[in-house]
Amino acid sequence: MRPSTKLKTLTKRKSIFSLIALLFLFGCHSGENALPPTAIEPTPSKDQLAWHEMEMTAFIHFTTNTFTGKEWGYGDESPSIFNPTDMDVEQWVTVLKETGFKGIILTCKHHDGFCLWPSKYTEHSVKNSPYKNGEGDVVKELSDACREQGLKFGVYLSPWDRNHKDYGGAEYITYYRNQLEELLTNYGPVFEMWFDGANGGDGYYGGQRETRHIDRETYYDWPTTIELARGHQPDILFFSDAGPDIRWIGNEQGYVGKTNWNTLTPDTLYAGKSGITELLNTGSIDGTRWIPGEVDVSIRPGWFYHAEEDSRVKTPDQLFEIYLSSVGRGSVLLLNVPPDRRGQLHENDIQSLRGFRQRLDEAFTNNRATEATVTASSYRGKSSRFAPENLIDGDKETYWATNEDITTGSIELEWDEPQTVSYVLIQEYIPLGQRVKSFQVKAWNNEQWETVSEATTIGYKRILRIDPMKTTRIRIEITDSKACPVITNVAIY
Ligand code: FUL
């Protein structure tokens, strides 16, 4: 072969190779983008996902405090004062279910140490009270009623016990674990376990009447307790200041940070160190674990029922604002509604809850997005699997996503007729991790696009309230994201 022919053949071969390489590259690229996005770790467990979807849960604070008027019982209260005159657990569950709550967490034992179930490990319980002549078991009554009406049941067992003689010593930890075992083996499935951060101080302590301090970091040896609990209830989620499954949101007024990452690095786990409340309120963008925030807040000034607070029950409007700053910022609301001395939710609380429900229904029933034509700046691999129509199909398993390397993008909704818009609701597909760092909402004002709201994180759910306006087009622009955005739902009200 002459050199020139050799060259020609080589060149020809080279171009065939390049073509194959190009085809290969292109094929790979579109192939990758036809696959679901790679998850951004950390991601929620299946139990955490189910918890996010509950959105609203209720807290019941009920113990001797209800009858003494205290918030923190000293631990020397006689069980004989626990005497609800017209107890109606069915009423608690019916009202809470009807107004939208998906689960109830009961203070089985608060700091005063009085047990709402007949624990075999102490005399300081309902078994020595006049309630049902000592035959009552509030934990059983409530867990049964929850199960019958399809609500989940959770337990609060105060680590701090101002009644118990051994509090502060090793024997108390055994006592605490024995009690936990009773609660987790006798009352059916428990979805959440609440470890309260208030710990140690003065108390009755079996008659010693003294002040006892514990080392919050080491005293309880939580990992062992959690392992024991999971042995009985594999699906249980643990709430404490910093997790491990659900974190405290850092305040008890009902608000989450405007930026809310579900992720946190648990180097502060179980701690109550000063300065962490800010971190708990916002989470951290680069957190190594999925530890979403829960917003505990009471419908009344106190956690327990006090007749003098009957006129200070939060109004439907106040509860609606709390909803927007908790559920509307991607967290779960845990609203406390304390039963009164009859053992019933008070009329004022019920009225407020019903008004709140009505406010929610008025605001979030008529979703305009389902009537819109929805388009997007681009979608993954141009595959219908990731198309913008998925945003309005009401299916939580489908989503809109961009190509792997595209971390911004816009979604547009358009109507033939102008729509009055007051709220924009958006949800990330969190099984693949939390991604969006910032976004804007724009509305077409017949001349140009006007920015009507902007925010940072989305997570499980973000609701933005805008000044009500009429428009034929809404655009959501994702301006920054940790990875390609993956959005499962957009609703417009
Ligand atoms: C706090 C407790 O001290 C309050 O009494 C209440 O139970 C609240 C939910 O948590 O830490």
Q: What's the count of strands?
A: 19
Mean pLDDT metric: 93
Number of contiguous helices: 10
The name of the CATH topology of the largest domain is TIM Barrel
Give the bound compounds: beta-L-fucopyranose
Unreliable spans: 1-11, 21-29
Q: What is the spatial order of strands in the main beta sheet?
A: 1-2-3-4-7-8-11-12
Helicity range: 25-40%
Beta strand %: 15-25%
The first-to-last residue Cα distance is 76 Å
Structural class: alpha/beta
At CATH level 2, the architecture of the largest domain is: Alpha-Beta Barrel
Question: What is the level 1 CATH name of the largest domain?
Answer: Alpha Beta
Task: Return the domain count.
Answer: 2
**What about the largest sheet?**
8 strands, parallel, barrel
CATH superfamily of the largest domain: Glycosidases
The coarse silhouette is: elongated
What gyration radius follows from the Cα positions, in whole Å?
27 Å
Order of helices and strands: HHEHHEHEHEEEHEEEHEEHEHEEEEEEE
Description:
This protein has 493 residues and is α/β, with parallel strands linked by helices. It folds into two domains: 46-364, Glycosidases (TIM Barrel, Alpha-Beta Barrel), CATH 3.20.20.80; 368-492, Jelly Rolls (Sandwich), CATH 2.60.120. It has ten helices and 19 strands. The protein has helices spanning 3-34, 46-54, 65-68, 89-98, 138-149, 170-186, 222-232, 276-282, 316-326, 347-364; strands at 56-60, 103-109, 152-157, 192-194, 201-203, 210-212, 237-240, 246-248, 263-264, 289-290, 293-298, 332-336, 373-376, 400-401, 409-428, 436-444, 449-455, 462-481, 486-492. Helix 4 (89-98) packs parallel to helix 5 (138-149) and helix 6 runs parallel beside helix 7 (222-232). The longest helix has 32 residues, at 3-34. It starts with a helix and ends with a strand. Residues 1-11 and 21-29 have low confidence and may be disordered. The structure holds beta-L-fucopyranose. Beta-L-fucopyranose binds next to loops.
